[in-house]
Amino acid sequence: MKMVAFGSSACFPSLKLVFFFTFVSALVTISLQQEQPVLNSAEQESVYQVLSSINSAIPWRTLFPDDLCFYPPHGVVCDYFTDPLTNNVTVHITELNFGYVSDYTPNPPCSPNSTFNPLIFTSFKHLRKLFFYQCFTETQVFFPEIPTTFASSLEELVFVDNPAFVGPFGGVIRNFTSLRRVVLTGNGIYGSIPDGIGDLINVEEITLSRNKLSGNVSVSLAKLKKLKVLDLSGNGFDGDFPCSVGNLTQLLKLDLSSNAFSGKIPQSLSNLQGLEFLDLSFNRFGNFGIPLFLSEMPRLKEVHLSGNLLGGEIPEIWEKLGNLLGIGFSGMGLVGGIPASMGVHLRNLCYIGLDNNKLEGEVPEEFGLLEFVSEINLENNNLSGRVPFSAKFTAKVGEKLRLIGNPELCVDEKLSHGKSNIGKSSLAKLKKCSKPVTPNPVLFVRVSQSGSLSSSFYVLLLFWGLLILFV
């Protein structure tokens, strides 16, 4: 093999090509920087100040000395705008995203001393998205007064897990008439939902979970015809839930869990024909039983009613609910037996929780045919009889097959010694069945083609009659 020294002339052509393309690339970069519009100095200065208020320990001006629309930190997004009269093109900040989420979205990280800079509401006239994740966690930050000139373009307002961020909800959404998404979860937002929320006619998602909101829910929500997600979970709302929400026919998700709603679950919810997720758990709905109108909502994938004392028996409503993946009916005061039809029709079911009720009778054998199920919780009821599941089924579900708290429920001795991972489930804590499984004797009767009983049947009857007579 012929060796070529680094300084050999044989290397020169390739080195010249590298230098040439590097030089051309630099010229193109400089040219693009000169041709594209630049962020105006006032808006650039405001970005620096906002970044400093989020994390003053980072030298933002040193790390990002150039035009922030050409070379910005992650989370700062720009867009181009054309004046329809002059055709002049300008560039402006359209997104501000703060708070490290993951390596895939490495927004500017917040510090324990982060503050909310009011320049956000005065310097960015084209802002479409404002996002804060775990930025205001220690030092209390009050939501500032919003100028009436702001928010003509804001479409997404997202504050996630900022417990020190406080302010009345009515003040937070003021003037945001173009909003499509309002996500305020895990913050210190308080007060009630104002009637003015009905002015957000373009909104598609309202998520207000885990705040300090209270009072009745405004009937103005019914004006939001484009709404697809309504999540009010983890607050202190009370009273009746407005029936008018049944007019939100585009709704896909309704989550009212962990509040203090009372009265009857509105029949009008049956109008939500596209609803896929319904969670009304841990409220004070009571004494009206499981709503029969659930059978009129064929697209439901999850329904959760746990923690409401609805009482009554589990109704036979499952034939049209084959899309259900999860059922949460824990601690509802349910009585009677478990319908076998649940196992027959809900073939896509992954989770079912019927624990802490007053259910009785046997566990339906049909539950053992649920091929996708990963958790069955029947704890703390009055169920009895033999556990009907196969060794293969119990091995698949494992520790998430929960049956303890049913004193009259027993497990077959053969199953307990099989390869069923019984030690990983509650089966190990159940008593062993005293009698082996024996099939009930069935008298075989041959029927003629005409449908009448054969003569041998009458001979058999005569034989048994004589036997009883003379013995």
Please characterize this protein's 3D structure.
Keywords: Leucine-rich repeat, Membrane, Repeat, Signal, Transmembrane, Transmembrane helix. It is a single chain. Helices cover 17% and strands 22% of the residues. The chain is of the alpha/beta class. The protein has a 19-stranded mixed sheet that branches. Strands 17-19-21-23-24 form a 5-stranded parallel sheet.
What is the CATH C level class of the domain at 310-436, in words? Alpha Beta
CATH fold-level topology of the domain at 310-436: Leucine-rich repeat, LRR (right-handed beta-alpha superhelix)
Number of strands: 24
Please tell me the overall pLDDT.
85
Low-confidence stretches at least 5 residues in length (pLDDT < 50)? Answer: 1-24, 26-34, 441-459
Q: First CA to last CA: what distance? A: 110 Å
